Amino acid sequence: MTINQSGWKPEIAVSGAVLASPTATGNRALMLEEPLIFEIGGMERTGVDLAEAPAAPNRLGGMERATPIGLPGLSEQETVRHYTRLSRQNYAIDLGLFPLGSCTMKHNPRLNEKVARMPGFADLHPLAPQSAVQGALAVVHELGEWLKTLTGMAAVAMSPKAGAHGELCGLLAIRAALEARGDARSVILVPESAHGTNPATAAFCGYAVEDIPATLEGRVDLAALEARLGPDVAAVMITNPNTCGLFERDMKRIADAVHAAGALVYCDGANFNAIVGRVRPGDLGIDAMHINLHKTFSTPHGGGGPGSGPVVLSEALAPFAPLPIVEKDADGVFHLVEEETAGADHGQNFGRMVAFHGQMGMFTRALAYILSHGADGLRQVAEDAVLNANYILRSLEDVLDAPFGGTGPCMHEALFSDKGLAEGFSTLDVAKGLIDEGYHPMTMYFPLVVHGAMLIEPTETESKAALDQFIMALRSVAERAKAGDEALKGAPWFAPRRRLDETLAARKPKLVWEEVGGLAEPAAAE
Amino acid sequence: MRYLPLTDTDRRAMLDTIGAASIDDLFVDVPAEAQLSAKIAGLPDHASELAVERHMAALARQNMAAGDGPFFLGAGAYRHHIPASVDHLIQRGEFLTAYTPYQPEIAQGTLQMLFEFQTQVARLLGCDVANASMYDGSTACWEAVAMAARITKRKKAALSGALHPHYAQVVKTMSKVTDYTIADSLPSIQPKPDNAGLIARIDGETSCVVVQYPDILGRLPDLEEIGAAARAQGALLVVVVTEPVALGAIRSPGEMGADIVVGEGQSLGVGLQFGGPYLGLFGCKQKYVRQMPGRLCGETVDAEGKRGFVLTLSTREQHIRREKATSNICTNSGLCALAFSIHMTLLGEKGLRELAALNHALAVRAADKLAAVPGVRVLNDSFFNEFTVILPGDAREAVRTLADRGILAGVSLGRLFPGEQALANGLVVAVTETTTDEDVDALCAGLKEVLA
After folding, report:
1. Are residues B337 and B358 both part of a single domain?
2. What is the reported pLDDT for B318?
3. Mean pLDDT for chain B?
4. Average confidence (pLDDT) over A77-84
5. Which of A7-11, B21-25, B176-180 is predicted least confidently?
6. pLDDT tens string B296-329
7. CA distance B349 to chain A (A)
8. Are residues B362 and B268 in the same domain?
9. What CATH number is associated with residue A222?
10. In this structure, is residue A219 part of a structural domain?
11. Peptide bond before residue A447 is cis, with ω within 30 degrees of 0
12. pLDDT level of residue A23 (50, 70, 90 thresholds)
């Protein structure tokens, strides 16, 4: 077994010449290659010590496993080393600015991690008697009250597991409300610039999806929207601030037109960070909006989740909120409204969309974040997020094309296009060049309405010095892309991997490891 | 504000660079009537770390944690010991504070972990392939039903009566809007699962049969019999596993013919957390891979020929396919998948088999002790680490009374199936490696008093 599975050897340029300079391991000092657990683990090796099972008859009813599973084990030290080495191949917000537009990669305070791990929250069963979980129900309720107040909405559904699940919740509530008035409708309108989850969610709910065009200013085309509204339209899904980083100025007029046509307004709240504390979506006529706790309220993204997507609802949709619901009695006791207790007050609920109560581990973190900021701090969050984004927009618009830069300020994210890059150079090259400069790239090729889009969201937790350094780095990469620097097309040169062959991965999918010769204890010596 | 690095001097300098007189100039696109002129009234201002920690700790203390006394709750969420290194490793900032690995050159840590996770899950479930995770077991269950409908082009699902009722509720919520027909029932209160009743609900229109294994009462249904009946009608077998530790002791669903296997991975590495975040496991046969929901990580090479990993087959997904995607899922349970994978690596084959044997032996001994309590009857013929006891009266009352005495006795069927009188006396009792002899004795003594 070799550590360096593919036999790659580093090269070193000496006096301009490239020399093959193999290290025996394929490692480059602190940049360490790491095999798969299936290549280093063994069926007999383990990192746990368990009590011996007491003698007892077998009651498995003839279902005993007869074949090995094929799970390699490692000792604790080997395990710690394996995952620590893997971790060092990742970029992360803890390492530096992470400007992924629409993803709100802000600092993740460690107090929130500590709070979520308090045994009273972390070691709590979801089906424990309600008398035993009053503090947990209080957290759900307290966070829900904050979310309602911050958005100016009537009700909140806490159980959705992530943003897309929140979209599903909102559309299910809209559908239930329409059906309750005997007015089933079949179409959801979605702007071209929307996140892919919006049309996917609408389709998942059984609706036909139609695009609404954008204006040349990057906003929803109100006239086109009004022309399309009719008795078949159930709802409009709008992202505000939108994915071009712009506030939908006509939001209230859009909502009024949608309501006049008998439809409802769903708002994708992915970008709530830009307006928290300064604008209440409830004042704009919105009927449902999900809030990504893992964006605006800083619960960690964890390399792809978990998220959490509570949905705030208008008076019109409140009766249709899903179960369970946490309520506070007049005497201060919290209780769960579930199927048997929904009764008259919540009799129109659309049902249950997840097994238990939602992402409790995210609720504790988000509540700690909100309490840390308070009403004054949250307003400052929005202002600093918008300030940082505009600073980037104005500091780079001389070198990168800002398609909407001339129309006014942006909100929380700055949008550039690939216009002006040298022939044959693309947004991808700029992104990969940024990797060599030590940054995670911006969101690329989204939104779809801008050619070669580069969407940069710095968030409020970056200092001016950090922004200045990022601006310097991106300016340099952009200038190289405009000058046609061929070296950029090979970037990244210094990352743990060079550009990866995604076509090969998709054409011949290899999704699980397959052993050659079976798993066994590796030989003691190599 | 300790998380906000800009000073007023910075802000002034930045506004000058932008060419704005004040921050309000940057919000000009927001209509004035929609803007709040000051912070929202009636809410507290920012607070110190100490103050927030105190507030949260006070709320945490109002809960009775699993470790606070004898504890026997399961029914879809299980308390297992999590090795200390798991939580240490998932708090590495490079894992905790990374995003979905869209830039694979600087996300190989997450991607290699996901490839290892997918392999571990596929092997555990007995499937050819597994994805990079779903939200939880209940949403994975619905996704399996929807996937079976896409594959078979049929819209009728037969659910076992002994499927977790919350999972069945989730399926029904979604079925209302997708025009699926759901054929289900209540669980039979019998020592063996009601395979015949389930098979009778399968017909030529059925897309899939959904069976939980072990089931909500802890019993172990024979999946081969159900799978054969499904295949005979052109339907798929979907198996739901809410306790993955069981698969260290019992045959995998895949080897018994399951087409799609979904599960709740919370038992390994994740913890109870009052119901979330949890970890949806999703595996299937190779031939169905392009109909799978969620992210998939695959192996490839980089420009120099080095092995590397990327997210792949994304033409199934919402960010590419939009309304034609197989699912709307985007963010999944990445960090929970990491915790699961680390715990599984620490266990290995040997550790998982031993852990499963220990759970089963302790559960058998506990069942025998409970059966000796006057008035208590153990229902199950077969079980892994969870079984159902029938009390002489309403089990919900007994659970409440025992909770007041510091004993969390189990999950009553009245809580799971409210209003069903025929089930009201049932209590589902889970026993894991965290359960001590003293805990079991306390439960037996408590029940004896309550039932006296």
Report:
1. no
2. 84
3. 96
4. 98
5. A7-11
6. 999 999 999 999 999 999 888 888 888 888 888 9
7. 5
8. no
9. 3.40.640.10
10. yes
11. yes
12. confident
- Average pLDDT over every residue of A472-499: 97
Q: How far is B232 from chain A (nearest CA, A)?
A: 23
How many domains would you assign to chain B? 2
Pick A126's closest partner by Cβ from B17, B247, B274.
B274
Q: Give the model's confidence band at A10: pLDDT under 50 very low, under 70 low, under 90 confident, else very high.
A: low
One domain for residues A359 and A426: no
- Residue at B55 is within a domain: no
pLDDT for B214-256, tens place per residue?
Answer: 999 999 999 999 999 999 999 999 999 999 999 999 999 999 9
- β-sheet with B260-264: strand ranges across: B129-130, B280-284, B260-264, B236-241, B206-212, B156-159, B181-183
Contacting residues of A for B355, CB less than 8 Å apart = 48, 50
Q: Let me know: does A277 contact A381? Beta carbons within 8 Å.
A: yes
CATH of the domain at B250: 3.40.640.10
Structural domain for B413, as ranges = 67-82+350-451
Neighbours of A311 (CB within 10 A): 31
Are residues A123 and B79, on separate chains, in Cβ contact within 8 Å?
Answer: yes
Say whether both B338 and B358 belong to one domain.
Answer: no
Q: Do A36 and B277 touch (CB under 8 A)?
A: no
Query: Do A422 and A524 belong to one domain?
Result: no
Nearest C-alpha in B relative to A73: B348
Interface test with B, best of A74, A123, A378, A521 (most B CBs within 10 A): A123
Closest-CA residue of B relative to A507 is: B313
Residue A182 lies in a domain: yes
Same domain, A123 and A172: yes
The mean predicted confidence, pLDDT, of chain A is 93
The ipTM of this complex is: 0.97
Is there a single domain that holds both residue A409 and residue A468? yes
Nearest chain B residue to A294 by CA: give it.
Answer: B331
Interface touch B349/A71, C-beta < 8 Å: yes
Is the pLDDT reported for residue B27 higher than 70? Answer: yes
Whether residue B44 is contained in a domain is answered as no
Nearest to A126 by CA among B61, B427, B277: B277
Range of the domain at A408: 391-500
In whole angstroms, what is the distance from residue A176 CA to residue A198 CA?
18
Would you say A455 and A447 are in contact if contact means Cβ atoms under 8 Å apart?
Answer: yes
Tokens of B269: 């590495």
Q: What is the pLDDT of residues B372-386, one digit of tens each?
A: 999 999 999 999 999
Enclosing H/E stretch for B335: helix B334-371
**β-pairing verdict for B156-159 and B206-212:** parallel
For residues A213 and A293, membership in a common domain is answered with yes
pTM confidence score: 0.96
CB A446 within 8 A of CB A455: yes
Cα–Cα separations (whole angstroms), residue B256 to A404, A418, B238: 58, 53, 11
Q: What pLDDT shows up at residue A12? A: 59
Number of domains in chain A: 3
- In this structure, are A353 and A413 located in the same domain? no
Contact B6 A387 (CB under 8 A): yes
What pLDDT, on the 0 to 100 scale, is given for residue B228? 97
**Would you say residue B48 lies in a domain?**
no
B90 and B188 share one domain:
yes
- Residue A60 lies inside a defined structural domain of this protein: no
| Residue A420 domain flag | yes
Residue written as tokens 């299910």? Answer: A172
- Distance between CA atoms of residues B236 and B148, nearest Å: 7
Q: How many beta-carbon contacts under 8 Å exist across A and B?
A: 736
Is A85 found in the same domain as A193?
A: no
| pLDDT given at position A525 | 36
The reply to whether A301 and A363 lie within a common domain is yes
Picking from B25, B44, B382, the nearest residue to A59 by CB comes out as: B382
pLDDT at A521: 46
Calculate mean pLDDT across residues B64-82: 97
Tell me: pLDDT of A221 over 50: yes
Distance from CA of A419 to the nearest CA of B (A): 22
Dihedral pair phi/psi, residue B437, rounded to 5°: -55, -40
Mean pLDDT along residues B135-162: 97
